Structure to design on (722 residues):
């Protein structure tokens, strides 16, 4: 299957007769069925949300539901719920790989197929993919898919979130494509393997039955639409949905000038080597309506769990492009039609199958940042400031006073933070990373299950990147643990600023993490108070640039390295403190409306000194004692803003030592391009709509001379030899 149509279809120009001839139904019917498919995806996820047992599903909403199209159409992603974006880009190829390997001919009504191998379906082993075929007249016409994070899949630590795992064998249980339900009856061998090799089988097991019921609900709803409108109309509407996404993305690509741009970002370390950072490099080439993103130049894969697969890299590229070029069209695999992603094997963006892939989302986050930096030049005013950069994951486990175990995964940490500013306004202060459309559990949901109290979550002044539009502010978050426990911390973006400024805006300040070991050990919950942000007594630096004498943040200080402790054993009364990175500003800070600066001072986003230094605005009064009484000294402000300012460079400086680059070789091919006449032809692997292709492409105009499907791409898993 060639992922590119022979013509660039203009849907709006089609007459009603031509439209119906192409899709087997009229425009109105196609829109109804496209919305119906999205309704199916949303409905099954609503059911899962209300019926699941796992807190990472019910509270964090770490899952997604989707409708995948027919095998004859290439298993396209045709509809998805407003769930976790991190899963979207890999769903089509993941389902295709799983079904083909298991055998389409072996599937029967009521079956649920599973797979969690990162190299087959993307993501990590905890993200189980559940696939239910939908039959019409004994033919598979669609699939209902749920991908949901499981609390545990075995491995060296509870929950799996340890960066220091060295290979896939330490990562947890890998399930190759196999049935979990056969004809709606559980396959005991499959379930037994999972339950016997995971720590929270009593939670996972009922969720498996809930997911089966949700998939069955999706099948029923989908069949209702087919029964009412006919299979021809349904299949045509799904093709229309793909073509619409492709057309809208093509319009966004075409809006960019032709050219080539590069961007980079870095992950702090691999968890072992404190001195070496890892590079995410993206070269974006645009010609006409075609876009090619080459990840050559990214660092080699890490010897720890800091790795992603090619499918995860494709998701990050799609997300970055979609954010700036077409943020409103529902996500389908059609958006890849005019985008080729070039990914060198053996890099951090496409690790080899023996690698431990766990923290793929950290690679994705840095790759999104690299993409946004590359696109900032052609986007001009539409550029987006950088965000806080890392999930900063915390996982803890221990025993309560009564001996019962407790476990916390991605709850009591800095997983949410500031976004960058845009031409539309200031950046948000407390959001998930761009590829994480999850919910931050509330204190009321966390504290009854975990022996911890959330002491504070508040913004810190002068952490947001200054700009005509201010970036989101960094947050301080502190939790005290009322029971001893073992903790794993993975802060991965404090060495260099993640919140890069754009269009003259300034970078947001970098944050850090600390343990305060003996805070309020003897205090009762009723009398506990959060330590002030400036209080670093007994503070143990975990991550960030820190003054070694005071343990306070210092943007030019020594880099604290969390990996020196694989497990942090902390006693009762320990406080975990995070200060998140600030978001990047947009535009010249001295062009910010003075009244907006005044409001920022009153609201605590900017200090009086910061208003003068960063915005050229002189504020009189004390915002702490009398926030409504502070005023603008207009004369001094006019003088400050009229005086010459030294140039302020917000360009990010790379770390001193970065892991080796990995390049993808493009083999020259003789001949000339039929489109532009150029003689620069080359063959190489690309990932696009429809999966992997071995392509011959013109290096001048990006025209595909030929595209041959490559089922596996450059990655081959061992079991494929069977």
């Amino acid at each position: 299957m060639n992922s590119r149509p022979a013509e660039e279809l203009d849907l709006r120009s089609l007459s009603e007769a031509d439209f119906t001839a192409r899709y087997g139904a009229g425009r109105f019917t196609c829109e109804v069925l496209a919305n119906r498919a999205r309704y199916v995806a949303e409905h099954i996820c609503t059911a899962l949300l209300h019926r699941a047992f796992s807190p990472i599903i019910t509270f964090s909403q770490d899952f997604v539901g989707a409708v995948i199209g027919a095998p004859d159409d290439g298993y396209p992603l045709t509809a998805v719920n407003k769930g976790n974006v991190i899963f979207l880009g890999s769903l089509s190829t993941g389902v295709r790989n799983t079904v083909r390997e298991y055998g389409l001919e072996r599937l029967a009504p009521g079956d649920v197929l599973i797979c969690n191998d990162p190299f087959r379906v993307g993501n990590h082993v905890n993200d189980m993919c559940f696939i239910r075929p939908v039959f019409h007249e004994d033919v598979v016409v669609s699939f209902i898919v749920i991908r949901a994070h499981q609390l545990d899949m075995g491995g060296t630590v509870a929950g799996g979130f340890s960066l220091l795992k060295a290979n896939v064998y330490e990562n947890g249980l890998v399930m190759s494509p196999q049935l979990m339900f056969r004809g709606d009856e559980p396959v005991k061998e499959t379930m037994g393997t999972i339950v016997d090799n995971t720590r929270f089988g009593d939670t996972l097991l009922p969720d498996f039955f809930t997911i089966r019921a949700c998939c069955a609900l999706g099948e029923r709803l989908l069949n209702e639409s087919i029964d009412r409108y006919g299979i021809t109309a349904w299949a045509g509407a799904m093709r229309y949905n793909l073509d619409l996404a492709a057309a809208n993305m093509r319009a966004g690509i075409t809006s960019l000038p032709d050219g080539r741009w590069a961007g980079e970002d870095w992950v702090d370390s691999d968890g072992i080597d404190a001195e070496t950072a890892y590079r995410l490099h993206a070269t974006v080439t645009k010609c006409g309506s075609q876009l090619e993103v080459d990840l050559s130049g990214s660092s080699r894969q890490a010897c720890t769990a800091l790795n992603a697969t090619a499918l995860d890299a494709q998701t990050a590229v799609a997300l970055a492009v979609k954010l700036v070029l077409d943020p409103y069209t529902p996500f389908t695999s059609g958006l890849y039609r005019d985008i080729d992603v070039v990914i060198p094997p053996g890099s951090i963006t496409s690790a080899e199958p023996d690698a431990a892939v766990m923290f793929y989302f950290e690679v994705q986050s840095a790759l999104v940042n690299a993409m946004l930096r590359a696109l900032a030049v052609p986007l001009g005013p539409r550029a987006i400031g950088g965000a806080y950069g890392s999930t900063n994951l915390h996982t803890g486990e221990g025993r309560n006073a009564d001996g019962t175990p407790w476990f916390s995964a991605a709850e009591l940490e800095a997983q949410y933070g500031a976004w960058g500013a845009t031409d539309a306004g200031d950046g948000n202060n407390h959001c998930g990373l761009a590829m994480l459309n999850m919910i931050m559990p509330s204190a009321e949901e966390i504290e009854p299950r975990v022996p911890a109290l959330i002491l504070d979550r508040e913004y810190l002044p002068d952490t947001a990147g200054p700009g005509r539009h201010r970036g989101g502010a960094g947050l301080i978050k502190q939790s005290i643990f009322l029971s001893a426990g073992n903790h794993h911390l993975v802060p991965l973006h404090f060495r260099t600023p993640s919140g890069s400024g754009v269009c003259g805006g300034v970078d947001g300040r970098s944050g850090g993490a600390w343990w305060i070991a003996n805070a309020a050990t003897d205090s009762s919950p009723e009398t506990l108070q959060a330590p002030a942000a400036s209080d670093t007594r007994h503070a143990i630096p975990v991550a960030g640039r820190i003054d070694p004498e005071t343990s306070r943040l210092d943007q030019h200080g020594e880099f604290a390295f969390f990996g020196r402790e694989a497990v942090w054993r902390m006693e009762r009364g320990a406080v975990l403190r995070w200060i998140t990175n600030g978001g990047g500003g947009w535009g010249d800070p001295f062009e910010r409306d003075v009244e907006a600066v005044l409001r920022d001072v009153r609201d605590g986003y900017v200090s009086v000194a910061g208003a003068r230094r960063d915005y050229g605005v002189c504020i009189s009064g004390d915002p702490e004692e009398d926030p409504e009484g502070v005023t603008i000294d207009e004369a001094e402000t006019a003088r400050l803003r009229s005086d010459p300012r030294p140039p302020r460079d917000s360009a990010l400086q790379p770390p001193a030592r970065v892991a080796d680059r990995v390049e993808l070789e493009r083999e020259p091919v003789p001949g000339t391009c039929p489109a532009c006449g150029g003689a620069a032809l080359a063959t190489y692997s690309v990932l696009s709509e429809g999966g992997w292709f071995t392509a011959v492409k013109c290096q001048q105009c990006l025209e595909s001379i030929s595209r041959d499907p490559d089922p596996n791409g450059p990655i081959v898993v061992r079991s494929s030899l069977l």
Observations:
- Residues 593-642 form one domain.
